[in-house]
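Objective 1.3, modelling of assemblies. Example input:
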Amino acid sequence: MIFGIIGVPKKTRIYNSPLSAKNILKVENIAFERNDSLLFHPVDFSVSSGEALHIEGCNGSGKTTLFQLLTGLLQPSQGNIYFCEQPVDRCRYDYLSDLLYIGHQSGVKAMLSAEENLRWMSPVNTSSKQIALALVAVGLEHYADIPCYKLSAGQYRRVALARLLTTEANLWYLDEPFAALDKQGIEFIEYCMQQHIEQGGTIVFSSHQDLTKVAVRKYNIIGYSEAV
Amino acid sequence: MSNFLSGGFTAYLFRELLLAYRRRGDVVKPLVFFLMVSTLVPLAIAPEPQRLAALAPGMIWIMALLATLLSIESLFSDDFQDGSLQQMLIAPNLLAMPVLGKVTAHWLMIGLPLTLISPLIGIWFSLPAVAVLPMILSLALGTAVLSLIGAVGAALTLPLRQGGVLLALLVMPLYMPVLIFGSATIQSAVDGLAWLSPLAVLAAFLAIAVALCPLAIVAALRLSQNN
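Predicted structure (tokens):
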């Protein structure tokens, strides 16, 4: 199944500023307050080009909330986020243009087919061939035309993850990308992540399992409700 | 998206229409409601043409208002549940345009069909022929305002999940002026008065709503993430 992606052209990744290659993303002591108490201990890390950061943490420690803070869906109660050494508020357009976020709810519409969903979620200039190849790569070529509500949970997830092949974004945020996937599916995602890192991309992801192929740095997020 | 400003409007408009086509059974519900009430009113009240004609302007507008209110609740809830809303909110483009595209699609699915079948309702209610054109025009403009205002309410009550009653309470006071000027347009035409002035007020409402509602909707959608 993995071999299907060989046909997908490689994307060139160029960052404008020479400074930025160091710290694509820098998170400075961010915390989030919910119902008057902090959700997790302040988070502080930086990720550079060609690096993957694995966010670990117990259920309810705030991993998904952290991703929502990173994407700007939520505003942090304290701390700052920098993209290429600039506060994200200052370079919002550049930051969001360069960002791919796949969360638990991935935005796949149940009433649309896999092909229509992928077309919607891919950049405008993506060719039909690229979309077809991406669907082959995730093993959905025979399901491309049926509405997604007929797919299994794992296949549903694969529709969203096929975006990894069509995106032009350099900064990937993947919240539990392996949930509901089978062995081959996990292998495939690892392969995509590996390719992305080799091409100088940056990944921040959360998962409860360790990756076998991709070298990652780990960051542990600790919820306030847990005993430390 | 090729253009920063227009980016998203047509894309979201066509996407919404495609989605509506895929679940057309749900989409026609408000229309069926509109038709059912219009058949029941003459049966329940009185089939006399004079009495029905007197009721018609108000009844048609009340039904249009309720049909819009019934359908507006689901405008953002699917997107909220399947994560499309999150993806929309983290898109780099200006958010008002996709939102306006979604509301326009809603009007095309609810307001426009209501407007188009209203002459039929007019006949059932023995509405004088002179009032048909004012009725069509007032419904076309008015239902667009109803969709825009309703969308603000739908976005505000989004995280509540069971926000139906609250939505009605929030939106009703803002619907009142539209209802008053909408039915006044038809009534003026029935009475042989100048109906262009209440219609102009409706058009003014629409201009204000198009300019301001998308901003309010975007702000409410951003808030919905914070729960």
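Residues 106-168 of chain A form one domain.
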